[in-house]
Write a structure and sequence with these properties.
This protein is of the alpha/beta class. The chain is 41% helix and 22% strand.
């Protein structure tokens, strides 16, 4: 089965790389699942740190996946309209990787702001992201469990 991951890089992911602890949400997901493609969205404020810390190269090394780094024009990750407009540019390309093919798209619902998580939740729950599953890594201080949810209840309430 073809499996892909969509994720934003969050501040905790960067902090764990700076400390060389490597236990952020993205690493937790990569340690449990294998992926063909990993779509990594990076907001404007994080570009330099991501490059300096070689985060995309690390993800490629530990996952053996095709890493698609998407440097967005998102300056304010708390602006839902801006997030939606930026994400919708890539939805068709991401959906091609699972549509009409037996596959799954895991969506990291942790490495981001509440606004990003809200938009991603709606995209997963309403089927905008085809055949997608929300992935919720836990705080590594307490557990290494990753909860999965297809968020079907959004279809019921919309």
């Amino acid at each position: 089965m073809r499996r892909n991951l969509l994720t934003f890089i969050g501040a905790t992911d960067i902090k764990t790389h700076e400390k060389k602890e490597y236990n952020g949400a993205i690493e937790q997901i990569l340690s449990k699942y294998s992926f063909e493609n990993i779509y990594v969205f990076i907001t404007l404020g994080l570009e330099d740190k991501v490059k300096k810390l070689n985060m995309l190269e690390r993800y490629k090394d530990i996952s053996k996946s095709n890493i698609i780094g998407i440097y967005t024009k998102i300056e304010d990750p708390t602006n839902p309209r801006l997030l939606y407009n930026e994400l919708k540019k890539y939805i068709d390309d991401i959906n091609i990787s699972t549509k009409n093919i037996e596959g799954e798209l895991y969506v990291n619902m942790v490495s981001s702001t509440p606004q990003i998580i809200s938009i991603l939740s709606l995209f997963v729950g309403t089927g905008v992201l085809y055949n997608s599953i929300g992935a919720y890594p836990s705080n590594p201080l307490y557990s290494d469990e990753i909860k999965l949810d297809n968020l079907d209840f959004y279809r019921e309430i919309i």
